[in-house]
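Quick illustration, no need to memorize.
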Amino acid sequence: MPVKYTDEFRARAVELVVHAQADPATATGAIGRVAAELGVNKETLRVWVRKYKASGRSTPAESIDFETENRRLRAELAEAKRANEILRRASAFFAAELDRPSK
């Protein structure tokens, strides 16, 4: 009975092979190494990679728009800093409330 793999698993496996093949130092035997690490038959992985390359799609690393990603990450960082400042002030407020004598 054949094993069914999720589309996400297949995409990640192909991505690992494509990135390994992009570096000349790791290109030789990339499919075999990745297949052994993931526990997938190397011929199965080879077919996945062949179909992926035939589709003409770019790898996820090549399709990243760095300016957009940078703006998104900067906005996320600013929001995290605002949230940390609010939490720091709330913590100081409640600590001061605990130090006050009760009636």
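The chain has a mean pLDDT of 87.
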